[in-house]
Write a structure and sequence with these properties.
Layout: E1 45-57, E2 62-73, E3 78-84, E4 89-97, E5 111-114, E6 119-128, E7 131-142, E8 151-159, E9 162-170, E10 189-199, E11 206-207, E12 211-217, E13 221-226, E14 232-233, E15 239-241, E16 245-247, E17 258-261, H1 270-287, E18 303-307, E19 314-315, E20 320-324, H2 337-352, E21 360-362, H3 369-386, H4 392-408, H5 424-429, H6 434-450, H7 452-466, E22 469-471, H8 473-485, H9 488-493, H10 499-508, E23 513-519, E24 526-532, E25 546-548, E26 550-552, E27 565-567, E28 571-574, E29 585-587, E30 596-599, H11 601-611, H12 621-637, H13 642-649, H14 658-674, H15 679-700, H16 710-726, H17 729-744, H18 755-764, H19 768-780, H20 784-794, H21 800-812, H22 818-831, H23 836-854, H24 857-865, H25 874-886, H26 888-891, H27 895-928
Parallel strand pairs: 1-10, 17-18, 18-20, 21-22, 23-30
Antiparallel strand pairs: 1-2, 2-7, 3-6, 4-7, 5-6, 8-9, 9-15, 10-13, 10-14, 11-15, 12-13, 16-17, 19-20, 23-24, 24-28, 25-27, 26-29
Helix pairs in contact: 1-2, 1-3, 2-3, 3-4, 3-6, 4-6, 4-12, 6-7, 6-10, 7-8, 8-10, 11-13, 12-13, 12-14, 13-27, 14-15, 14-16, 15-16, 15-27, 16-17, 16-18, 17-18, 18-20, 19-20, 20-22, 21-22, 21-23, 22-23, 22-24, 23-24, 25-27
Amino acid sequence: MLLPSIFLFLLGSLEAIPEEYTSDYDLVGFNSNFGDTKYRLADTVYPLLMRLDLDVYLNESRFGGFLRMDIEVREENLQQIVFHQKVESITAMDIVNADNTVINLQFPNPFITDDYYEIVKLNLAGPIPAGNYTITMNYTGIISDNPFDAGLYKGYYFYNNEEVTYATTQFSPYSARRAFPCFDEPKFKSRYVLSVTRDSNLSHTYSNMPIAETIPIGANRIREVFHPTPIISAYLVALHVSDFEETELSSTDARPFKVISRRGALDQHKWAAETGVRITNELDDYLAIMYHEMGQGILMKNYHIAVPDFKFGAMENWGMVNYREAFLLYDENNTNLINKINIATIMAHELAHKWFGNLVSTFWWSNVWIKESFASYFQYFAAHWAIPEFELDYQFVVDHVHNALAHDASLTAKPMNWTDVASNPTVIAHFSTTSYAKAACVLRMMEHFVGFRNFRLALRYYLRENAYGIGTPADVYAALTRAVSEDFQFLRDYPGIDVSAVFDSWVQNPGSPVVKVEVNTVTGDISVSQQRFVISGTRPDHIWHIPLTWTHEGAINFNDTRPKLILSTLSTVIQNTTNLGNNWVIFNIAQSGLYRVNYDDNNWQKIGNYLKGPLRQNIHKLNRAQIVNDLLYFIRSGDVNNTVALDVLDFLRHETDYYVWNAAIGQLQFIHRRFEHMPVAYDAFSTYLLNLLENVIQDLGYDERRTDSTSDILNRMQILNYACNLGHTGCISDSLNKWRAHRANVNQLIPVNYRRYVYCVGLREGDATDYDYLFNQYETSENAADMVVILRALGCTKHEASFNHYLRQSLVNRKIRLQDRTSVVSFGLQGNKENIPLVLNFLYQNYNEIRTAYGGSDRLDIAISSVSGFLTEFTLIQQFQTWVYQNQIGLAESFNTGVGVVNSAIANLQWGNQNVVETYSFIIERIAS
């Protein structure tokens, strides 16, 4: 399952859980498989086969269900069988043994549903022996109108200006129980046989497996029976009922592959169809298990469905992957390069899940990294093998490594193995940067440690030995240990090193370390020590086994990422380094390890001087990116003197590389905004940043060239967007020329990779007619990715009535998807700082309506949290705080989110006050020179 960028849906998801909960029926003395945590089940009862018949009435938003569960009771004298449910009602339930003898149920209360813990308890009249049993039941369910409710839900799209509905599923991590009672934990795996009855005017139903039989039911209904699934967890079951259309542009009989979407979008299937096949082939080859052969006797489908309304980025249901439409459909006239790359990486993520998560599942969500780390790793590398020109091996670093390190800089960061995961809210909370980006970075670090061949061999061992079962961290460690034990060179180079211990230290420790490096230029000795890195607060005592790589100016080698030392203690001294002399040393080659590096001031000065000289590019671009990102975080944390850090960072005025600037822009924006309440310092910093950007803007130019690489195009997109927002006159002038030329001739399209900043400048410098024109483009667009670009740009208008219209549309306009509505608030804040009071008033006056229209309390939390970084005036903070406390009852669970925003805003002002003098002195000196 791929979450939306930055995983915003997690904000505010935690809620208070009572210590005790008394159900309607206290079963004293019963021997049950009800787990101690009350949210989980004991494995004394296990599903073997699930036969599910659903009768779906799409227009009425309801369905009926009949379920037959074959189970194995693994404990003697069981008197109660418990499993999960969150359906509308269970109307009948029976149980028979293997001889088809009816097992008597308790009377009264033969079964009881508990909607708090989302379970049903089947109460037997007397104890039963271990053995096989079959439970049957009839029940009813609701098709939700809210995608954020998950389960089986209803969505819509527009065709010829008419609204058309469909129903699809999102069961991960614990919403299969909304569609059918089941054992809704990943470790409970079984085969499923599904049948779906639907209206005959719809397209055929999609599910995990091919249709085995089609049966007309009366004049207007059709029942479709699907082939049995392989052994899977309940959350991987899927179905889709609609009038959608499909293409088989890259399909063969032996390797079926389809892209499916709403009507009117068939011309946007081709690129995903071709890309998905290439990525599948790469994974087949790397993992040596063929995807299409995983069906346990049935040829597996490889179907990919573009869903207009979707909570997550995509979901890896076996045989039928659901995607948010913008992440699957490609239109060369309306999809920019960033979104094109997203399609490839998200497809790679979901396809990798076929092996990691589907074939081998995690035993419980406390270790969700066991599936998400590999999917996030192959998200970049499988896509890189398929499309090397996208440079995804390098993009992994600035996307995943820097994101993971930023997340780990908080004291609240959780370990990859978070044992506190027990309840539904904590399950959701662990679908986080830790389980995705950080865990993928740990895998990449381990690959550089053990070597490409050993790493691949280990994954093959792991998959083969745990296929159709569950995997644990110990299983992953064992596979790696086995692989390296067969490599005499590894054993020679790392005598006595326990690979399991190295890996486990990253799984068990929260956060990530900073390695402190102090160089003795006289002796050549290098002292290294480790400590957990946090932005603020007391740093906990943790020890990692850190694979250390380094090079130095006297013998530059940024190609060898194999560790020279595993730092397994708090500190050590690396002695007898050759040819070090008075040269700089740089650790963490190509940022192959998940750690920051802080040097002594002398080494920082040497690095800075070298970077500002003509040989700058001798230092690997990923290490230049690392240096920039680390230093900007060290400024925030106070680990490096601001003047020392800024002096090194001044090399950016010569830098033209995408990866280096990508590592810089976000943190430069953060620091810049901290001075916004001090106009003199803020304006000086603006001027300084524009000076830094001038060379890279001149190098890139304002128009694409035929010789541009992927990173050239991406760099132009990020640099010009940043420069226009800072007020760069050349960027604004060029953007206005492009906008006005388009307005004069609508057939002269603005190239897709310019649209984000050109649209924004056009509206920011324009009037109501410009807003109205672009809003009409949004209303008529047929490409979801382009619609998001337009939606972002609409928030740039300075016309007050237009901006208020924009905010209001997020509440009432059906063209703005539920998943995009919170973005309207953040886009409005980013578009113009003059719009901040309007956004705040929108929240103040409409928070109850926002809660409903945006999809629930969690979505209101996201909207409220969006303002945190933009409350840069004390009067606005006071106003916001007053609103929060005056509306404490109405805000309900969102009250704490509002308090957190106030605290964060105050902390931001304080940081700016504490750092302004030194920073201002430095930039004034640089501007003057």
